[in-house]
């Protein structure tokens, strides 16, 4: 009987924890998007340039 109550309590706690709504993240600003994109393209260009020098052996 004690085991059944323990299982019921654990199940209830798990269900309560999983049912809470996740925090809504704010939308990124255009400035943040532009900075991320600029950083991505800069990194891509560096990798492309290092690939060209590395493959010309």
Short overview:
By secondary structure, the chain is mainly α. It has helices at 2-19, 30-55.
Question: How would you explain this protein's 3D organization?
Answer:
By secondary structure, this protein is mostly helical. Helices cover 77% and strands 0% of the residues. It contains two helices and no strands. The radius of gyration is 26 Å and the shape is elongated. The model has no long low-confidence stretch (mean pLDDT 82).
Give the low-confidence spans: none
Spatial separation of the terminal alpha carbons = 75 Å
Structural class: mainly alpha
Tell me, briefly, the overall form: elongated
Oligomer: single chain
- Write down the overall mean pLDDT: 82
Order of helices and strands: HH
Q: How many individual helices?
A: 2
């Amino acid at each position: 009987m004690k085991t059944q109550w323990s299982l019921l309590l654990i199940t209830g706690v798990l269900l309560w924890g999983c049912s809470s709504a996740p925090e809504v993240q704010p939308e990124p600003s255009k400035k943040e998007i532009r900075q991320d994109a600029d950083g991505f393209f800069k990194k891509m260009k560096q990798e492309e340039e290092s690939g060209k020098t590395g493959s010309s052996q």
